[in-house]
Amino acid sequence: MSDTAIPTAMPKPIAGPVIWLRANLFANPLNAIMTVLVVWFLVMSLPALLDWLLLDAVFQADSVRECRAAGSGACWAFIGEKHRLILFGLYPYEEQWRPLLVVLLLIAMAGVSCLRRFWTKWLAPMWIATLVVVGILMWGGVLGLSYVENARWGGLPLTMILAFVAIAVAFPLGVLLALGRRSNLPAIRAICTIYIELVRGVPAVSLLFMASVMLPLLLPEGMNIDKLLRAQIALIVYASAYLAEVVRGGLQSLSKGQYEAADALGLTYWQKQRLIILPQALRITIPPLVNTLITVFKDTSLVVIIGLYDLMNAAKASFVDPAWRGSSIEAYVFVSLIYFAFCFFMSKYSQSIEKRLAQSQNR
Description:
Layout: H1 17-24, H2 29-55, H3 64-70, H4 76-88, H5 97-114, H6 123-139, H7 155-181, H8 186-200, H9 204-218, H10 227-253, H11 256-264, H12 269-284, H13 286-299, E1 309-310, H14 311-318, H15 328-362
């Protein structure tokens, strides 16, 4: 007789809608109560919400008064009338194809950057070239394009430019600050620690006010920085400090053996960080990193307090028209959907990266 064990098939996992519901929604009494409450809330609120959004909504009208006379739902005719002001702010009407092209270009580059096969040495030069094209399109003054000062920029292109540039510059700066805070050199460690704690200890609003009011006072006489650049600097400073703390948490979570193994290989400091330490630290910190990036994207709406016509401020300007006064809810819903679309994409993309990394580790 042979002692070789006869291989048996692995049991198939039990699956089905009833099993899924029991495991996820009714696993214990508290989950069951919360599930019932959520279902009750949806049953009570969804019909009224659908009536307001679609069934009783008005899609064609010349004023808010006509909307209210035609139906009790949302006045989407207002969005149809003012969408260009909301999306592009005070940019010249006949030239709004340029900010539209900028939005499409930035979205395309963001999509390309999310594809792993484009993670090569050419990605950074592609982004630099894209930002140069964005500057040419927005400012103009060359290639037959009329000049448009950045005081007239607004809406979605301005929000995307502020967010993308802030993230692109703040991320490497945050990594350097995190490394500096863990440096063995006391002076560098002290400078990075003071910078991070000072920035994280004040609201983003105060940073914008300082960049708008205090920074011009500190510049030499005759030198001035325009409002858009000051807001961009404030967002970069704010984002870099928070990203630095997230990266520092990832660096501290690594075991001492990783550092000792890198030293045993005879690697230089920057080789050790680039090849061994930072890849592992950034992998660990993907969820908080993406959460910080989403926060930075949403916090671009704070530039409204210094008079920049970002997406939120452009929405506020859209319902100042007396003919459409009273349509603020529709404007805010429209803007919130735009913010949600971008933030939802970033969240789902981070989840896909986490799943991919988990699969590669389990192999």
